[in-house]
Amino acid sequence: MVRLFRQLLLLTGKAGLARFIFLGLLSGASSFLFINFVNKSVGYIIAGHFEEKRLQYTALFAAVILLFVVVRRVLSLGLIRLSQTLFWNIRKQIIGCVLNSNYRQLFNKKADIQAAMTNDVNLLTTVSLSIIGFFTAFILAIASLVYLASISFVLFLITLVVAGAGSLVYHFSAMNNNERLKKGHLLERDFFRSMDTILDGFKEIYMEPKKGKAVYDEKIKRIAKNAYRNNVSAFTGFLNNQIIGQVLFYILIASILLFFSFVLKIKSQDIVSFVFTLLYLLGALETILTTIPVLSRAMVSSDRLLDLTENLRANSDRNRIPKKYMTAAEFDSIVIKALQFKYGETAQDFSVGPVNFDLRKGEVVFIYGGNGSGKTTFMQALTGLHIPDAGEIRLNGLLVTNENYPEYRSCFSVVFSDFYLFDELFGWKNPDQEKFLYYLRLFELEGKVTLEGNRFSTTDLSMGQRKRLALIASLLEDKPLLILDEWAADQDPYFRKKFYTEIIPLLKQSGITIIAITHDDKYYHCADRVYKMEYGKLMEKPVGEYAVS
Ligand SMILES: Nc1ncnc2c1ncn2[C@@H]1O[C@H](COP(=O)(O)OP(=O)(O)OP(=O)(O)O)[C@@H](O)[C@H]1O
Question: Which parts of the sequence belong to the ABC transmembrane type-1 domain (predicted)?
Fold first, then answer.
């Protein structure tokens, strides 16, 4: 609650919040004034001298209705704006944190982020709209209680005892319900995970519907069943509370009419006013009680959102935009000493290193090795995607540290084996069209794709062509180092030959330094140096071994 309040305060500022509170008070006051005028009018009507008050009360009713409309309009507009600002601010904040977060940490948080972006943010913003009703009802309830005390203090005390008993029941059951709501959120996250499995693996499911049925039966159905049970008991708990609250009030009203009015000898006019105000109080309490479950869910959502942003921030590696980009001409060397990287903490977790490795300007280096030997892991540690656990990296003699990692990473263009082909050259406003056309010819994609502004006309290409386009996009970035992870694996034999024997020498000639992970031993002679990765250890192999036979 406090965290949510702080978040709101950040958005509204102190003056803005004071304005909302003032308007909320006015809104509650206008509702209370209305009841008060109704009560008074009824009193005058019962007493038989309403005629002389008719004009005065016409004006008072008109004024209070006008006040109600104006205050509600201003308050509603303010809250709609606030809820939309909250909605987009939280989304932007989360995306900002995602963009700044550590690659390894982010990997495990996909489902959490998706659930937060859809469920939690939506809930939080819709609840901010129901706050008007809640706040007005709250003020009305307080004012009604004060009014009740002024009519009959004894009846007021009895009302307080009944309200207190209702609140206690509510409080204890709400704690259980909130736990259930938290569990509901966890189930929602599991649901998103399974949804991802279905959407990402749809090709495989389409080919073998048994897979889809198994995911449906074993995951979706189980989650739905658990979520159904959990949510039904949470909401039943809230509804039961509501019913208990209402029944207590009905008993109170009936007791006042049938019993207390005679025992306490209260004037019939006061009894009418008391019961009338009690009915209004009941309405206000009903609004409060129905809004509380939504508020509780919003509180859980807001806690989850704040936990997520705090967690993302804590794991941020401040992946800022580099202050300076190195050109190919400026690049001289990368020297790596005793680099080590380990996934996780246990003895079973795979590790790479210690690796000693150096790379000079314009070199072409190939790395090969069995599946799972650690080639990609090494490449990810070399490029700064994974931060090494030990050892040092020097770029042009300068030690790479946490402070200059962004500049270091920006020296590499990478085409990952599981690359993502952006349909726009994001971050490059005016790409060099001539260079693009040159590469398009070189990679034999002419007539297949064009560059419109910085957007590709299409990315609906074959896998091999998509990889060629991804490489072109990387080359347009003009980085000194090019890293390729099994790039040629999807190319046909003709283009594979062209890639190793023509394209790589051309790129080398233009000053680009290349590291390629490759299983194409037929072309290892095209490299200046060849390394083998085995169980996380990198060993240099003589290139002569791979001379063309
Ligand atoms: N995200 C990860 N978390 C934990 N361990 C991982 C992760 N990714 C890979 N590994 C482990 O690291 C080892 C090396 O994986 P890596 O991808 O580096 O191998 P590779 O040599 O590139 O293999 P391939 O030729 O199959 O692509 C694997 O055996 C795997 O157990």
Answer: 21-297
Q: From edge to edge, which strands make up the β-sheet containing 513-517?
A: 412-415, 481-485, 513-517, 364-369, 529-534, 537-541
Which residue CA neighbors atom 24 of ligand 1 most closely? 371
Q: In this structure, are residues 277 and 137 in contact, taking their beta carbons and an 8 Å threshold?
A: no
| Bond from prior residue into 354 cis (ω within 30 degrees of 0) | yes
> d(Cα 190, Cα 115) in Å, to the nearest integer?
9
> How distant is the alpha carbon of residue 437 from its chain centre?
39
Q: For helices 221-255 and 153-200, give the axis angle rounded to 10 degrees.
A: 170
Domains 78-129+141-314 and 333-546 share a fold: no
Q: Which fold has domain 333-546?
A: Rossmann fold (3.40.50)
- pTM score above 0.80: no
- Residue 536 CA to ligand 1 center (angstroms) comes to 10
Domain boundaries, the chain: 78-129+141-314, 333-546
Does ligand 1 come within 6 angstroms of the Cβ of 164? no
Sites in the chain below the pLDDT cut of 70? 1-5, 7, 317-319, 544-549
For residue 500, what pLDDT is reported? Answer: 95
**H or E segment to which residue 277 belongs:** helix 268-314
DSSP for residue 267: -
Long-range contacts of 33-40 (CB under 8 A, 24+ apart): 33/64, 33/67, 34/61, 34/64, 34/65, 34/68, 35/140, 35/144, 35/147, 35/276, 35/277, 35/280, 36/147, 37/61, 37/64, 38/276, 39/272, 39/273, 39/276, 39/277
Q: Is 13 in the pocket of ligand 1 (CB under 6 A)?
A: no
Q: Checking DSSP bridges between strand 481-485 and strand 412-415, what pairing results, if any?
A: parallel
Q: Which two tokens stand for residue 510?
A: 């233009």
ipTM above 0.90, yes or no: yes
Q: Choose one of 350, 517, 535, 538 to mutate for the ligand 1 pocket test, by most ligand atoms within 8 angstroms of C-beta.
A: 350
- Which is nearest to 379 in space by CA: 528, 516, 530? 516
DSSP 8-state class, residue 101: B
Please give the CATH superfamily to which domain 78-129+141-314 belongs: ABC transporter type 1, transmembrane domain (1.20.1560.10)
- 380: Cβ below 6 Å to ligand 1? no
Number of the ligand 1 atom closest to the C-alpha atom of 373: 21
User: What does the block give as tokens for 358?
Assistant: 């150096």
C-alpha 384/C-alpha 405 separation (Å) is 7
Ligand 1 contact via 103 beta carbon (within 6 Å):
no
CA neighbor of 512 nearest in space, from 335, 326, 323: 326
CA 374 – ligand 1 centroid, Å: 6
Q: 377 in ligand 1 pocket by Cβ < 6 Å?
A: yes
Residue type for position 183: K
According to the model, what pLDDT value does residue 549 have?
43
**Does the CB atom of residue 373 touch ligand 1 within 6 A?**
yes
Tell whether ligand 1 has an atom less than 6 A from the beta carbon of residue 372. yes
Whether residue 350 has its Cβ less than 6 Å from ligand 1: yes
Cα(532) to ligand 1 centroid in Å equals 15
The pLDDT of residue 319 is 67
